[in-house]
Write a structure and sequence with these properties.
By secondary structure, this protein is α/β, with parallel strands linked by helices. It has five helices and five strands, in the order E-H-E-H-E-H-E-H-E-H.
Length: about 120
Amino acid sequence: MATILIVEDEVFIRQNAEWTIEDLGHSPLTASDLSGALLHLSGGEGIDALFVDIRLGSLPLGGYDIANRALNIRPMLPVLYTSGTPLNAEMSALFVEGGQFLQKPYSVKDLQKSVDALLATEPR
């Protein structure tokens, strides 16, 4: 199916997302920060989508930075953002073009729907 890069700094949430992505038949790659994400993005691995937490550690906008850098490396990469903060206009204004959002806490079913929708989007 698809290879999805998951960038999440909270270990438990990252592991759950990884296991869920695997259970859905996809191949997960994981990173906990910008440098780990860039290693995957700059490597030769095929990556079909990015699932990134907006707030990473002490960086309240870390996920936006990762998404922007990811699109500089892989311009057609679809992005799914997540956060425990409810989505507002200021947040969505910072999304990359076509970026989608999944509110934390999310269920397996919510993640499945979001990933399916993300992978079904037309390339930018």
